[in-house]
């Protein structure tokens, strides 16, 4: 009888549907946990509530089990966290969420093995850089921020090479144009100063830009203005600082320039890279259509190409705008992201041209200089229509010439201009003369980064005259400048970047250069634009 009773109990247990219900593959279904700080969580929750027909209140286990089909197409998701709880899902649509990648979908499939997950997520390594940059550009700043915040979670599901590329792709995210940088970026918080550029607006305001943080992966941009011809300067008005504590590596903004185009818009060019140089980097541009306003508005930055630029565009006689872009030859074999070997045929001192006032830029040609050292190349159009490129190399200034608008260039040769491994400045003036700013009290000599002098050429660089001493002290470098409508020349440069951290201005005329002394009424040297005061 006891055996019969035992068998009866066993048969009853086996026939009971409750006792035999096996858990579905994947994470156990639990109640939904709302997270208002996570945009992805909010979008997924809204979709669940619509299907479960429960607009408010706690989403319980029973509510989640009602969801067998869920549509999240074009929801701008950057993560799929939480969807693994929906173990009764039969169909999940995730199409047109461009920030999602295949690795994330693969992880979700492990939890929802019986679910038909429909998606067009990409294998990031197979996408072009332009496609990935466009995907980030289409995100709102909030969505891009969410993507950055989730980066460590995303890296967990990726293999070595794809993880490295994803890290480097963080430099494809448009950085914030911070127009309210105080007090965080006040002069008392800055401890470094390397000049980038200076420009004048149509209304006469001067804008200056320099690097803070260091000539390193800590670098970021600071901009200030002057409304009294450079005599006094504002506190920082614009900052581009792409650093975030949660990123797996440092992301910096290091070089660029300011330029007022022929239509009156003010451009800010800058590069962005992971670490000091990730092998690719990228040139970005933001425009300001009201640079003389009380509250200037800057456009969201747009990526132009790889590499970096440190000098202003040149307006050619054809009306084209030519932008110098450097993509270093050595890549970054030391960098964790790899050397980007597919870019090697494009490396060198490139020139890009815009035929539509900056709406688009096309690569036209490049020069590969021996012993390259950041290039920092500048282009002058000679009177005969040829283009003359001068570039910084490990051997000093070298040069090349193009007679077909920049498509092809002559073999690089050493320049007659003797210069240290440092930035210089050359520009056509309204008088037709060429202006040259270099180190050294003669054209064929220099004393390292000291004795910053100004020169003029009447014959397109065949010979030089003048030699106005702008600053003879040691530790000065990186001149950039422009000529105002009244003929006055403005040159910014830095002094003792890591100690004094000074950004300085020289204001002078062609007559001053010829006389080799200041003779103009407005002429003045060593005007202070800014000084890093964090160490005071």
Strands in their spatial order, largest beta sheet: 4-5-6-7
pLDDT < 50 stretches: 1-29, 333-337
Task: Tell me the number of strands.
Answer: 29
CATH architecture of the largest domain: 6 Propeller
How far is it from the N-terminal to the C-terminal residue, by CA?
96 Å
Average pLDDT reading: 89
- Which structural class matches the secondary elements? alpha+beta
**Total domain units:** 2
Query: CATH fold name of the largest domain, please?
Result: Neuraminidase
- CATH class type of the largest domain: Mainly Beta
Tell me the quaternary state. Answer: single chain
Largest sheet: 4 strands, antiparallel
The percent of residues in helical segments reads 10-25%
Enumerate how many helices there are, as a single number. Answer: 10
Rounded to the nearest angstrom, the radius of gyration is 30 Å
Beta percentage is 25-35%
Described by the principal axes of the CA atoms, the overall outline is elongated
Q: In words, what does this structure look like?
A:
The N terminus is likely disordered. Helices cover 16% and strands 30% of the residues. The chain folds into 2 domains: 144 residues, Leucine-rich repeat, LRR (right-handed beta-alpha superhelix); 358 residues, Neuraminidase (6 Propeller). β18 and β19 form a beta hairpin. The strands form 8 sheets. The protein has a 4-stranded antiparallel sheet with strand order 4-5-6-7, with no helix packed on it. It contains 10 helices and 29 strands. It is of the alpha+beta class. It starts with a helix and ends in a 5-residue tail after the last strand.
């Amino acid at each position: 009888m006891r055996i019969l009773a035992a068998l009866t109990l066993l048969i009853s247990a086996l026939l009971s549907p409750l006792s035999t219900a096996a858990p579905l593959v994947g994470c156990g279904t639990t109640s939904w946990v709302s997270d208002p700080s996570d945009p992805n969580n909010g979008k997924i929750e809204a979709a669940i509530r619509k299907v479960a027909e429960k607009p408010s209140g706690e989403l319980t286990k029973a509510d989640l089990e009602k969801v067998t089909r869920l549509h999240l197409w074009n929801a701008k998701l950057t993560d799929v966290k939480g969807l693994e709880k929906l173990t009764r899902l039969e169909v999940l649509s995730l199409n047109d969420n461009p920030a999602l990648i295949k690795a994330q979908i693969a992880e979700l499939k492990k939890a929802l093995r019986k679910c038909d997950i429909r998606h067009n997520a990409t294998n990031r390594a197979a996408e072009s850089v332009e496609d990935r940059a466009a995907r980030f550009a289409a995100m709102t700043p909030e969505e891009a921020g969410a993507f950055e915040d989730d980066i460590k979670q995303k890296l967990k599901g990726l293999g070595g090479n794809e993880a490295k590329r994803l890290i480097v792709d963080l430099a494809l995210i448009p950085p914030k144009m911070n127009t309210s940088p105080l007090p965080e970026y006040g002069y008392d918080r800055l401890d470094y100063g390397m000049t980038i550029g200076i420009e004048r607006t149509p209304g006469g305001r001067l804008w200056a830009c320099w690097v803070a943080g260091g000539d390193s992966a800590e670098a970021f941009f600071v901009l200030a203005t002057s409304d009294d011809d450079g005599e006094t300067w504002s506190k920082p008005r614009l900052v581009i600082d792409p650093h975030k504590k949660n990123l797996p590596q440092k992301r910096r903004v290091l070089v660029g320039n300011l330029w007022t185009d022929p239509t009156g818009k003010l451009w800010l060019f800058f590069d962005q890279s992971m670490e000091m140089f990730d092998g690719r980097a990228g040139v970005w541009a933001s425009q300001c259509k009201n640079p003389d306003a009380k509250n200037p508005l800057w456009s969201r930055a747009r990526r132009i190409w790889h590499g970096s630029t440190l000098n202003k565009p040149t307006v050619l006689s054809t009306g084209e705008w030519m932008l110098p872009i450097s993509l270093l030859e050595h890549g970054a074999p030391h960098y964790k992201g790899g050397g980007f070997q597919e870019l090697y045929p494009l490396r060198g001192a490139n020139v890009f041209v815009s035929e539509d006032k900056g709406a688009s830029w096309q690569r036209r040609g490049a020069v590969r200089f021996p012993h390259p050292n950041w290039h920092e190349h500048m282009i002058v159009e000679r009177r005969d229509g040829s283009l003359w490129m001068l570039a910084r190399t490990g051997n000093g200034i070298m040069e090349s010439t193009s007679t077909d608008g920049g498509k092809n260039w002559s073999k690089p040769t050493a320049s007659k201009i003797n210069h240290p491994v440092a930035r210089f400045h050359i520009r056509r003036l309204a008088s037709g003369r060429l202006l040259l700013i270099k180190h050294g009290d003669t054209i064929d000599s220099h004393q390292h980064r000291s004795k910053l002098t100004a020169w003029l050429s009447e014959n397109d660089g065949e010979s030089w005259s003048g030699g106005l001493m702008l600053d003879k002290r040691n530790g000065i470098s990186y001149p950039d400048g422009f000529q105002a409508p009244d003929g006055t020349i403005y040159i910014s440069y830095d002094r003792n970047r890591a100690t004094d951290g000074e950004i300085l201005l020289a204001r002078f005329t062609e007559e001053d250069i010829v006389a080799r002394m200041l003779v103009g009424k407005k002429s003045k040297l060593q005007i202070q634009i800014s000084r890093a005061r964090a160490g005071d």
